[in-house]
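I am going through a labmate's work and have reached the protein record below. What it holds is a sequence and that sequence's fold in token form. Please read both lines and tell me whether the tokens look consistent with the sequence. Do not assume that whoever made the record got everything right. Thanks in advance; the entry in question is below.
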Amino acid sequence: MVFSPPSPLPFSLQPLVDHHLAQWRAAVAQDELKDPQAQSEEFIAELRHVLAGSDFVAEQLRRDPAMAGRLMRGDLLWRRLASGEMESMLAEALAEVDTEDLLAQSLRRFRQEQQVRIIWRDLTRRADTAETVRDLSEMADHCIEAAYRWLYADSCTSQGTPMSDAGDPQHMVVLGMGKLGARELNLSSDIDLIFAYPEAGETRGGRRSLSNQEFFIRVGQRLIKALDNITVDGFVFRVDMRLRPYGDSGALVFSFDALEQYYQSQGRDWERYAMIKARVVAGDQAAGAELQSMLKPFVYRRYLDFAAIEALRSLKLMIQREVQRKGLQDNVKLGSGGIREIEFIGQAFQLIHGGRERALQQRPILTVLDVLAANGYLPSAVVDELKSAYLFLRDAEHALQAIDDRQTQMLPTDPQGRARVAYMLGFDGWDSFRETLETHRGRVAKHFAGVIADPDEDQDEEPGWHAEWIPVWESGDPEQAIEQLRSGGFKDPEEAWRKIGGLLNSGRVKSMQRLGRERLDVFVPRLLGMASEQDDPDLALDRVMPLVEAVARRSAYLLLLTENPGALRELLVLCSASPWIAEQITRYPVVLDELLNAGRLYRPPETEELVDELRQQLMRIPEDDLEQQMEVLRYFRRAHVLRVAASEIAGSLPLMKVSDYLTWIAEAILQQVLQLAWREMTLRHGKPKREDGSDCEMDFVILGYGKVGGIELGHGSDLDLVFIHDGDGQAETDGPRPIDGSRFYTRLGQRIIHMLNAQTTSGALYDVDMRLRPSGDSGLLVSSLKSYARYQREEAWTWEHQALVRARVLAGCKRLSHRFHVLRAEVLGRPRDEAALRAEVTGMRQKMRDNLATKATSAGFAPSAFTEQALFDLKQDAGGIVDIEFMVQYAVLAWSCQHPELLRYTDNIRILDGLRDAGLVSGEDVQRLQEAYKAYRAAAHRLALQKQPGKVSGDQFHDFRRAVMALWQQWLPD
């Protein structure tokens, strides 16, 4: 690829380039090194360009004239390095090292040559920003690792090998922080390190025994010297150890236990902020992974961490004041709109949300920004601006540092320096560069100002928009408050004041601690102000006040809503729309977290995403912490049910998708509950046996009947479940407390039900109904497949075969699942006497009407039912949901012997499609039934969200009801 400079070399830089080029040529001539490749026109053209931007490269080539030839012969200036190539090059450079001085010299010469290569490729734009920072970080990793390994081996020779109490050799773990940890080093970065070792012990094999800490302190001191000391060959990396516990006054090296104890008891928020980017860069990688796992709870809190907001706001204020105080406006890193502010934006979201949003547990800032966009934390347009600014600012930083290999981010003030920077970045002059720079910085500063901003400084709100409501809360004057509420749009201001005054004068508020009361005093005026903006302020306040009363003493929730006006607005909108949602949030306020991300709130995931999300959340919990695992399951359900309800209210999720989503949530939870219960049982009792004597590998399935089987779950639906196993009921398990297979599976089923039904402060997962199992309540809790098959073939009633139409496997063994589906097809697909079948189906339906339908319609079609006074039970009355379900079930039982395709699905809509496709029912009739079924279910969903029973005025749905009744008379005449 022929090099083409981005812009003509400025006239002012030509003397500088000519001087550097002449010096290099003189050095080459003096050493009589005239490598042909290093004299080519292409090389000289690029060399002139690089010399215009880097005195450091000029000096290195002058001091080592052969360097250019070496780089050219390896084609190292024109191509990126292959994976592992830099490590091999360093190993070759250190192959003959046998003294500490030679180690230091070899590391420095290697670094200088690589630095020339990296600067060259960066300034000529043969490498993009990502490659430049990756190569610099990789060079640091390899230099640290190689130096540590050499020094460790040398120290072991003279001082003995550090050992654990168990007699295992110990290695140090080197954590890279900041830009090194994120693999984002710049051209002249410090490297921030923390040294640790696994556990206490002593050295063995030396002249005298040292404690492991003393040994590693000595190794650490030698490592810092090998990297940091400035010699005639320069330095490798400047090393900064101040991020370790207690800073410069702390020990140089800490054991894992000491680090964990420090961060748990004394760790500060800025240390959490710093630890986000920590990475094991050298030493024992396996032990380092263990250390980071130990420290992760300190960095990423299990739930959304709003306690960190004040600390982040203080840090942000410190950044802003530092810019003003130190005159850093011309600093591309620390100045307003600089690199540090972009990093702060990403890390603030990581600290607050990273405990739950595992995708945010990343180190590189560009990756973090992508996650923020993908998950709706920031608009994509904002992220695009931040990423574009970050890359521009990093390129500018590299251009500044390439000049002298000096750690600076300050823009030059001299004409030559400005010309160099502008030229390296492809601008015609300083003014055009500065204009682009200020555009990027202005965008960053705007977005930085919006992150964890004080709500009083919200630029999108009218200043003091809530201030007029402060007297209502603080004065306690009923007349003044009622008048303010009336003028604010409340239709019943007396009732509104009764609620507010009741809270104000309640014992729980009067006994609140100072911090909680301060948060409540800030929150209530905001609540009133935003409630007054709703279509029905009285309703909004009525629905939200129970939540405020419930969480008044858990003020973190008040802080969450105060800090996030958008979340408060979503809360008011959703609670106004649905008392069911209001009740759920009041009972389980932890789901308030979901309101923070409106984009995600109204974008339900697909089934694979649900399963993966729950699996990842559980992976972060220790396997033996069942209580916390159950809390994760409960939160997962509450959060996603809130999301589906919000989407349904907003109209962004149609009825069929609502039921799909609710069903997928249940399936994902059941899969994990089964795995947790199976693990618990097998740890206690061992694995049960199959009839052939082999171990069972979870030969167990959970069948779903009814709504969950038909993929038609609604809000508040219980789960109709049946458990089947395929083990040997007589053979004993192989664990420490063996029991026979029958008892094992019965206890497994009991454990699953307990996990689903158990009431905690977070509520129960699901109500479970097991009455559809063989022989109902009098039957075994868990049946073997053989006994289940025998029952279905020989003893089951017709209504149980009707229920089997909607049965499917929700979780468990795939092999057993296949065998169940074969059995289901056999049972449902047997030939039946249609007249007898009709009689049994209609007889069962009539019993249900007699017991469950409204009186006006219990006998079937009744014109008097079509009045406003006579309510219509959407489910049980004639012409309603159950009539359609019975018709579909009758059709499957009657005709699937000749049309087995009817057995493919368990939901009514697709079974009706199958009846149409098989020519058994006209397309017009199928459409009528499907439309009626969807309309009824949609109405039932709406009523559930309003906490109303599934009944409507009798003058509704006339056409649908008549159509269903007419078709009933055709299919199943009374």
